[in-house]
Amino acid sequence: MGRQSISLTEPNDEWLKLQVQNNEYASKSELVNDLIRQARGQQRKVDWIAAKLEHAEKSGFTSLSKESILAKFKDEMNAEL
Question: In degrees, to the nearest 5, what angle opens at C-alpha 19 toward C-alphas 24 and 34?
């Protein structure tokens, strides 16, 4: 496992300490790793949506209603992510 030294603003450091004190996490490292995992998951979703939008822009017009398009998009997103 890689070891890293980072500098935090005072409010961020206090927030991390509070999460550990409240037994939400065993350590600040555990919390930071969890936050990074969450951010990576969000980035995968953003990338997936961007790819879908790019594909949609290139595919032209559709006769589907906006409700149908949204339902299809949500189904695909839930299946792939």
Answer: 70
pLDDT band per the 50, 70, 90 thresholds, residue 78? confident
Residues 6+ away with beta carbon under 8 Å from 78: none
Residue 71: both structure tokens together = 């339902």
Give the chain's domain count.
Answer: 1
Q: Which helix (H) or strand (E) covers residue 53, if one does?
A: helix 28-59
Output the pTM of the full model.
0.71
**Residue 2, domain member (yes or no):** no
Q: Is pLDDT above 90 for 60?
A: no
For residue 33, give its domain range: 10-80
The answer to whether position 1 is within a domain reads no
Which of 2, 77, 75 has its CA nearest to residue 42? 77
